[in-house]
Design brief:
- It is a single chain.
- The chain is an all-alpha fold.
- It has 5 helices and no strands.
């Protein structure tokens, strides 16, 4: 039991680091941080995820970073000033028009 209390957060830290790297790679390859962020928000909404969990809960239990932290990391990596897309279904059209 004690091993699990140590192993769980350590494994999750490693998993979250890989997830940040995967997010960064996806944004660099597609060149479109806005759509990636909008997709994360839509998936979070569909999965009824907690966008901003308590830091301890995220640290101990989450194998993926919270959506808020992922968006923050992507925005700073991409260097863009992200404005949330209200309706992701129209994201491409809205971005092409503006």
């Amino acid at each position: 039991m004690l091993i699990g209390l140590i192993q769980t957060p350590l494994g999750n830290i490693l998993s979250r680091r890989y997830e940040y790297q995967a997010d960064e790679y996806a944004v660099k390859e597609t060149g479109n941080a806005d759509v990636f962020i909008g997709t994360l928000e839509k998936l979070n909404e569909q999965n009824l995820g907690d966008k901003e969990p308590h830091p301890f809960v995220e640290w101990f239990f989450y194998s993926h970073p919270s959506i808020k932290n992922r968006i923050s990391a992507i925005s700073s990596t991409a260097g863009n000033s992200f404005k949330p897309i209200e309706n992701i279904d129209n994201a491409v059209t809205e971005r092409e028009i503006s």
